[in-house]
Amino acid sequence: MIEILVGTVLGIILGTISGIIPGVHANTLAGVLLSLQVALLAVLGPVALACTLFAALITHTFVDAIPSTFLGIPDAETSLAVLPAHALCLEGNGEEAVRIAALGSACAMVIAVPLSLICFLLLPALQPYFDWWIGILLVAAVGWMLVTGEAPGWGLAIFIVSGILGLFALRYAFLGWHMLAGGSAILMPLLTGLFGISVLLTASRGKIPAQEFRGIRLDDRVVVKSSLLGTVAGIAVGWLPGLSTASANGVLASVIGYEKDRRAYILATNAANTANAFIGLAALFALSRMRNGVMAALSELTLPSMGELMVAGVLAACAAYGITVWFSRSAHRIGAVDSLALNRAVILFVVLLSIILTGPFGILILVLATAVGLVPHFINLPRVYCMGAIMIPVILWSFGIMWV
Fold first, then answer.
1. 182 lies in some domain
2. Would 403 be classed as within a structural domain?
3. Which residue among 24, 108, 184, 321 has its CA within the 20 to 30 Å range from the CA of 99?
4. What is the residue range of 51's domain?
5. 71, pLDDT greater than 80
6. Total domains present in the chain
7. Cα angle, residue 125 at apex, residues 61 and 232 outer, rounded to 5°
8. Cβ contacts of 350-354, under 8 Å, gap ≥ 24
């Protein structure tokens, strides 16, 4: 139990740090920790290190609402949610937006943990059917996003181009330096370029108005409905390969609408983000499949039981809720931040990290991914179409077409 608590506390600290730094994902943190695996194992042991990684992931899903709301700089998984959250911030309601996001994540924890256990027990027997149909389901999901989008032609073009880039990155991942097995490290510059640096380069740089908290203006029925919608969406995309929280957010946008009901959408998308993290752990234990970089890092370790890691995740979620609310109370100080200097510092940090983890080939992928990630901004489309970088390789895998 001592190892679980030590790992959880360390994970909460690291997840808070990665969450408040814009453009940095928990996957990046996992890559760094795994690169220090030998030293950390000697100090912490495998149980504490595993709990650190999972607690950091859960904590990150709460705290990343801070830069998304106040700086207009989203995490890769919450690129759609930044629109209503930052809009509320520009109206002086940034603290409310962050508290709504934290509430959505907390509700997801309550719902997702038992649902993850049910999926762990019941769904593995049905997985061969899921694998057979996953390509068709992904094509249908992409078709739905395109049909409900504002510019299907441009959306399809971005999806295909990002897919080609994803195929190229995975096919030649051996050219990069490896910190994660199977070429997973190359996903860091790929996804960071598509959803991180491209966002930082176009992030809002204006002055943030004075913030005032007037309470959370959501009916209880809306909280329950949005929490359930978001959690179920996060569970679904977390179990099925090739989909991500960004995909779930795209579907939620068509159901709730981030312009029509901004507060409900913020709650639902953050619920999906946290639920996705919990179901990813169940998929790792049930299917030995890695749904994100943290799960890939965990697969390299001698793991404790799923129950022990779930305990670490629940404890981290409880602490992360309080941390996120505490940060939101400091919203009045955010106007003093030089967002341009901060953006440049984060970009430099990510570039240096890409060099360390993946070498020159990783920098090439980072540059190409950033160029592709900028296109949606210029034509005013959501970056969810850039998920082709992950979805197209999975679709080809499902249809038996090998690319690596």
1. yes
2. no
3. 24
4. 2-398
5. no
6. 1
7. 30
8. 350/23, 350/24, 350/28, 350/192, 350/196, 350/197, 353/28, 353/32, 353/188, 354/188, 354/189, 354/192
**Would 335 be classed as within a structural domain?**
yes
Angstrom distance (rounded) from CA 107 to CA 223: 9
What's the rounded Cα separation, in Å, for the pair 297 and 206?
38
How large is the average pLDDT for residues 310-337? 85
The answer to whether the CB of 184 falls within 8 A of the CB of 293 is: yes
Locate tokens 């979620």: which residue?
A: 317
Given a cut of 70, whether residue 76 has pLDDT beyond it is no
3-state class (DSSP) for residue 338 = coil
Question: Which of 204, 163, 196 is closest to 354 using CA atoms?
Answer: 196
Note the pLDDT of residue 332.
Answer: 58
C-alpha–C-alpha distance, residues 121 and 89, integer Å? 42
Q: Poorest-confidence range of 149-153, 159-163, 275-279?
A: 149-153
Q: Which residue has the higher pLDDT, 75 or 141?
A: 141
Rounded to two decimals, what is the model's pTM?
0.76
